[in-house]
Structures are given as C-alpha cells and as structure tokens.
Amino acid sequence: MSNKTHTLHAARLKNNCPTCFGTDGLEITFTQEENETPFFRKPATQIDEKLYCHTCHSIIYPVNWTEDIERVFDYNKKIAETNKQYLKVKPLFYISVVVAIVLVAAVVYILISS
Ligand SMILES: [Zn+2]
C-alpha cells in the first residue's frame, strides 16, 4: 500500500501576514492523502490545510489567523472541496469481479449438469 498527497487547491492571499505583516507572502494550500491498494485508490475523507508565509518562511497556525484570513480561507476551502478526490476503483477490481462471476457460473454449470 502506498501513500500519495494530492494538492487540491492552492492560492496566494493578499492578506497581511500576522507574523511579518507582509501582504504578498501568504499562500494557502489544501491537500488530501490517498492510500493506494491493487484494487482501489482510496482518498482520506479529511482535507489538510496549511497557511504558509513565503516572506518570513513560517507556517501560520489558525490561532494567529485574523478574521480576514478566516474569510478568505472559507472561500478557498469551498473551491478545494469541489476538487476533492473520491474512491477510485482500478481495472484489477473489475477483472476480479468478472473472474468471480465466471467461477460462480462454472460451479453452477457443473452442479446442474452432474
Ligand atoms: Zn510572514
């Protein structure tokens, strides 16, 4: 099983950074983890979000967010939600379903004809 991280949505904010007060450094990123098995690609139900300031090179935690940042965050979260990854079934899954049906049919055929 392998893990992948998808970036669902990223946006540069015009808001003031609560740490360095710069207006062009903030970037918000929404990511989603995904587990991969031979049959499925199964994304995590939860979206992870990160607010990073490129000017002072620090992660801004929600406790330090201003009201303006929260408003922009909510707006961008909605965009991220629309890009959310859902369970994907791989071809191997369908192949095993077909094999199972063929096996059952073969067993039924043998039972009927014996
Ligand atoms: Zn900053």
Indicate the topology.
Layout: E1 2-12, E2 26-36, E3 40-43, E4 48-53, E5 58-59, H1 67-82, E6 88-89, H2 91-113
The protein binds zinc ion.
Question: Could you walk me through the main structural features you see in this protein, from its secondary elements to its overall organization?
Answer:
- Strand 2 (26-36) and strand 3 (40-43) form a beta hairpin.
- This protein is of the alpha+beta class.
- The mean pLDDT is 95.
- The protein is rod-shaped and about 85 Å long.
- Strands 1, 2, 3, 4, 5 and 6 form a six-stranded antiparallel beta sheet that branches.
- Helix content is 34%, strand content 32%.
- It has two helices and six strands; from the N terminus they run E-E-E-E-E-H-E-H.
- The structure holds zinc ion.
- Zinc ion binds at residues 17, 19-20, 22, 25, 53, 55-56.
Please name the defining characteristics of this protein.
single chain, 114 residues, alpha+beta, six-stranded antiparallel sheet, 2 helices, 6 strands, 34% helix, rod-shaped, binds zinc ion
Q: How confident is the prediction overall: mean pLDDT?
A: 95
Structural class: alpha+beta
How big is the Rg?
Answer: 23 Å
The proportion of residues forming helix, as a percent range, comes to 25-40%
The shape is rod-shaped
* Quaternary structure of the protein: single chain
- Give, in order, the helices and strands: EEEEEHEH
Bound molecules: zinc ion
| DSSP summary: helix tally | 2
Largest sheet: 6 strands, antiparallel
Low-confidence spans: none
CA-CA gap between termini: 43 Å
Assess the beta-strand content as a share of residues. 25-35%
